[in-house]
Specification:
- It contains 6 helices and no strands.
- With about 170 residues, it is mostly helical.
- The longest helix has about 30 residues, at about 125-155.
- It is globular.
- The chain starts with a helix and ends with a helix.
- The mean pLDDT is about 85.
Amino acid sequence: MAAYSAVAGLGAAFGLVVGGLVADLISWRAGFFLNVPVAVVMMVPALRFLPETGRRRGHFDIAGAVLATLGSTALVLGIVNAADFGWTAVLTLVPLVAGVVMLGLFVRVERRAAQPIVPLRLFTGRERSGAYLTRMLYMGAMMGFFFTAQFGRASTTGHRCRPASRSFR
């Protein structure tokens, strides 16, 4: 847990600075590729230290994948539309309701799937479910802060991304 926390904290701190530099010097689009070299470097120790798992036949949970993707997308669309049209507008309510329905169907499909995308047994323990919820809320708040702080700092100070990211040190 300590190693994970240290890596997560360092990644968050360096992510703001490196992301600002890349956005300023190259393009904001280049930021999507920052994880590629990290993944390549991490593959070497992973091959050495992670044991090979046994092979077994399986199948994709296509219904679960489609419902999870469309449900999440619909929820995000509804939330984004609320900023432009308000929470009571049809363009907001329809995607929100559709997202909730599709995610409800996703849970129903996952209960019956032979090899579910998300095994629901992971949520049977109260402590584990609480930890998942806490982690989700924490990460949502942290990422929201990082995103708005970076661009808010750049827009209010008139700086480009690089000086704004340096100000977080």
